[in-house]
Please model this.
Amino acid sequence: MALLTALASDITIGTIEDVCTPEQVEMFIKPAIKGAILLGNWTTEPCGIFNMAEYETTAVLDGDEWVINGGKIFATNGGVCDYGFVMCKTGEFDPATMGGLTWFMVPTDAVGYEAGHDENKLGWKGSGTCQIYFDNVRVPKNHQIGPLNECAPILVAKTILGYGLYGAWTLGSSEAVWQKTRQFLGQRMQVGKSLWDTHQVIRNEMAQMWMQIECFRGAVY
Model:
């Protein structure tokens, strides 16, 4: 639930609120805040999220519409949301300025949009994560979010602090798993004694894991 809450606020609306036109605020941001629509934020490609020079998802202007082709991975809510804002190559990528990439708000009911199967993840079961595909998906010109060819620096500036959220979520999960394991070891009995009381090697391993969690806590804080 923490991820879905952040996705609906900081990761989506919080990223684009300053670059949306008044019309786009009415179309996307206000309905999302009210819960009338669900948004997604899809940037990552198989080459990596910040290896933008090798992005393959493109948007080409054709009259009054942009035509999008390509795909994204790790698309949270890709199979259930109403719109996803997608970063596409619209020009030659400039590594010095991170220029050449533009955002578009893509309706998931558009012809040519397809969501793949949900990934079988080790954790994070509360959210669906999938690949998404764009096959000549056409969106109106007014679905361009932010300045042409200049969205990558905005993404980095807006989301880099947000990655701390993932650290905090993972820290809390690690603590919970450790505590549940400790409880189990104290309750699992063999020959009248618990595994915790009879196996020093288990206590050593648990101590090592807790030290790793403490190191991670320091990094998060």
Remarks:
- The chain has seven helices and ten strands.
- The two ends are 22 Å apart (CA to CA).
- Residues 2-161 form a domain with the Butyryl-CoA Dehydrogenase, subunit A; domain 2 fold (CATH 2.40.110.10).
- The chain has two domains: 2-161, 164-220.
